[in-house]
Amino acid sequence: MPSASSASDRSAAAIPGSGSTGPGVLRRYREHLPITDATPMLYIGEGATPLVRSQRLEKEAGCEALYFKLESCNPTGSFKDRGMVMAVAKAIEEGDRAIMCASTGNTSASAAAFAAHCGLQVYVLVPKGRIAQGKLAQAVAHGARVIAIDGNFDAALRLALTITDIHPIALVNSVNPYRIEGQKTAAFEIVDALGDAPDYLFIPVGNAGNITSYWRGFTEYQRLGKAQKRPRVMGFQAAGAAPIVLGHPVEEPQTIATAIRIGNPASWQGAVNARDESGGDIQAVSDDEIMSAYYRLAREEGIFCEPASAACVAGLLKVTREGLSLAGQTVVCVITGSGLKDPETAMKAKADLIELPADLAAIEKALGFA
Ligand code: AN7
């Protein structure tokens, strides 16, 4: 097996322009990240994700412009790759040979992919039976040692903290500060694309690392004069897993959006700061509201995301329905993960699936053409 440093040297050498420009969030935003000459400039395709204008929901929400930041277009299908590239690069720089995370799925998929790219050992702890099949498939395919525990994400994170304290393994959950640093680059990309920060950012909240990251990114860009303003940050938790909304941890969090089935978020204070400093809010949306937004995104916008991602769009539709006026406002919703992760949930819709013999007349009749 190649050593980690030779693996990273190779990936840097294989890509032209490995200075502060070039592909990947580490190169593009090098000056804003904790990168030294000894940091391997890893890249598996993360960052530079599309910002897509809404076709239908914009009008319903009554805003000037509504955009979706498609973090589902990252290489492992979620925003986690932005933070993972930074966390894994620093782990290698610090001499670690193994990484570990607790995960509701996407973090483990991303950790497993970067570990494979770099030749590191990777261990993941997931809540048994509560993670979408696609995410588990990714971790398995990339060769992670996967332990499904009889317990929820919060229990898995407590165990991962203890294990990485005792053993020489780097913890790559968002309690690792490098994760937050990497993820803030999504805010930079939004400002770079729009020319300024949007007026509002709508984002799902689980362990609260991402909302913390965006707020840091917008704040740093404003301080540097690259943005004139910062957005109001609107975070959304699932109603059955809404500790920040309730103001206390939830012992047994429940929601169809398994990615955000988290009862005691690690970055709780970061989320509260983002809310309060921005003049935003953190609210809950029901599973029905989440699934309605999920199908509307798929059917009215052409965006297939996972339920957790749809929570922020459910929130947008809810707060505007309840009277928040977004007239004249530019709004960005963060589409955090791909719908392909969780096909079982998609198929719960009354499937428009008709089985017929391969017969022209029968098909024309079924389609209403005859
Ligand atoms: C699609 O993978 O916590 O508030 O272990 O997968 O930063 O936790 C995933 C979280 C939103 C919430 N959308 O972000 C994990 C994990 C999707 C996610 C969130 C997650 P945070």
Topology:
Layout: H1 4-14, H2 25-28, E1 51-53, H3 57-61, E2 65-70, H4 80-93, E3 98-102, H5 106-118, E4 121-127, H6 133-141, E5 145-149, H7 153-166, E6 170-171, H8 177-183, H9 185-194, E7 200-204, H10 209-223, E8 232-238, H11 243-246, H12 268-278, E9 281-285, H13 287-301, H14 307-321, E10 330-335, H15 343-346, H16 360-366
The site of ligand AN7 has 23 residues, from helix 5, helix 10 and helix 14.
Account of the protein in words:
By secondary structure, the chain is of the alpha/beta class. 43% of the residues lie in helices and 14% in strands. The protein has 16 helices and ten strands. The chain has helices at 4-14, 25-28, 57-61, 80-93, 106-118, 133-141, 153-166, 177-183, 185-194, 209-223, 243-246, 268-278, 287-301, 307-321, 343-346, 360-366; strands at 51-53, 65-70, 98-102, 121-127, 145-149, 170-171, 200-204, 232-238, 281-285, 330-335. The chain has a six-stranded mixed β-sheet with strand order 1-2-10-7-8-9, with helices on both faces. A four-stranded parallel β-sheet has the order 5-4-3-6. Strand 7, helix 10 (209-223) and strand 8 (232-238) form a beta-alpha-beta unit. The chain is globular and about 70 Å long. Residues 1-19 have low confidence and may be disordered. The site of ligand AN7 has 23 residues, from helix 5, helix 10 and helix 14.
Strand line-up across the major sheet: 1-2-10-7-8-9
Q: Please indicate the percent range of residues in DSSP E strands (runs of 2 or more).
A: 5-15%
Largest β sheet strand count, sense and barrel closure? 6 strands, mixed
Report the end-to-end length measured between terminal Cα atoms. 63 Å
